[in-house]
Amino acid sequence: MTTFLLLTFALLLDAYAGEPRWLWSRIPHPAVIMGSAIESLDNALNKSSEARPEGTIAILLLVTGAGIIGWIISLLGPLVSILGVAVLLAQKSLIDHVRAVSNGLRQSEMSGSQALSRIVGRDVNQLTPPETARAAIESLAENFSDGVIAPAFWFLIAGFPGILVYKTVNTADSMIG
Predict the structure, then answer these.
(1) CB 81 within 8 A of CB 176
(2) Number of domains present in the structure of the chain
(3) Structural domain that includes position 147
(4) Cα(128)–Cα(37) distance, rounded to whole angstroms?
């Protein structure tokens, strides 16, 4: 099966199923596992004035580990790859969160702001309804790139190792800069 076809099925699966809470309440989401690995290496290696070389070592270890794990997963067959890619994409979750802002704004300013606070890091309490809508659209644009376009690109370029390496580097950038 071609990489493009695998990606198409993964996008359809993510659009339909998204992030099933019943599953992620029982096992850790891959992003949680990545975050734990990043935090462990950051705590172990980011302690001294030698943070830059140690940070480089941490990223190289993370990228190598993600690449190897991605390669192993890719050997498990197309169905496992489709499921894995669908998990690493964030289109349904992102659409659901932005839709919640839209629906919230239809109810009240406060409901829209509360929904927005789940997807942005800024203070949303003083935003007007148009500012709330604009912030949701801005978040959609930025996160669509990070959560859908870039992972899909790296999957097309380098298969499952590519998407896993991208998600690991993107998560590390969010956590430690």
Answers:
(1) no
(2) 1
(3) 3-176
(4) 39
